[in-house]
Amino acid sequence: MVQPKIGTVVLNYKTYRDALDCVASLKAQSYPNHEIVVVENGSGNESAQVLKEAFADDPQVHLIISEENLGFARGNNLGIRHAHETLGCDYVFVLNSDTIVPDGVFAAVLAADAPDIGAISPSVAATDGKLQLPSENSDDILLQVKRREKGLRLARVLSLPIVRDLYRAYCAKKPPQPEPEYPERFGKYVLQGCSYFLTPAFFRYYTQLYPKTFLYWEEIDLLLYLQKAGLHSVAVSTPPIVHKEAGSIKTAVGAAQYDRRKLQFSLDSYRASKPMFKMSCEQIQKNYC
Questions:
Q1: pTM for the whole structure
Q2: 17 burial type by CB count under 10 A (0-12 exposed, 13-18 middle, 19+ buried)
Q3: What does the alpha-carbon distance between residue 105 and residue 280 come to, in Å, rounded to a whole number?
Q4: How high is the pLDDT of residue 167?
Q5: What are the boundaries of each domain within the chain?
Q6: Angle subtended at Cα 289 by Cα 92 and Cα 83, rounded to the nearest 5 degrees
Q7: Are 164 and 158 in contact (CB under 8 A)?
Q8: Is residue 256 scored above 60 in pLDDT?
Q9: Do strands 91-96 and 6-12 pair parallel, antiparallel, or not at all (unpaired)?
Q10: In the CATH scheme, what is the code of domain 6-288?
Q11: Which helix (H) or strand (E) holds 224?
């Protein structure tokens, strides 16, 4: 029996050492029917040359080089379309480059799939072994969108210089808050943003992620895609993927500017996503897939 074909998409932006480590872990998988697509996303450093040399004689690794930084969604879309349409992959694993994948993840994910599931998230842990919370976990994705909208408005106010200083002073006096515990149950719309599988059900409706954002909101947009198609997502207990969180964003903009740029990227992506919120699945297919 031929096992489903999995294509893993690894997006590189400047941090090619992480990408090389990630690909090495993927090549060590025991799952036999697996292709790897590395997208070099206009890093502007030596990434393209290093990756060309590393994968020149490797038939399992397919390198796509973009001359410009397309952002997270469009950069991944290059790899997603290549994996699904050109390589004929049934599942596409969208994976951050700053991750290490243990063996056994693929089999656990495939065993959890069902006809009404559009995305599957494996377990993810930090380098200290602690499981990381999913980026989204809700029974009502539309309510989650409203909460995110309110959060962005509050973040804009808190980013104003005087308000920011007062808020930091307030936070400094607050007693330390306990870290949130890993959830005992997951909602109908759950996603681990650094690591998720797009299933055959997803590809019955869509060919790629929503392409109008540059950075952030990709998870919300994907879950809205699923909701509009009558699909949902699941989180599966697997050997945990190690997320190093090396921070290609911080590498790109600098740690000092990170919070400010993150807010701006989030606002820009939210505005770019709003037209899609009111679209039907058919309208999304016509306009973006």
A1: 0.93
A2: middle
A3: 33
A4: 62
A5: 6-288
A6: 25
A7: yes
A8: no
A9: parallel
A10: 3.90.550.10
A11: helix 218-228
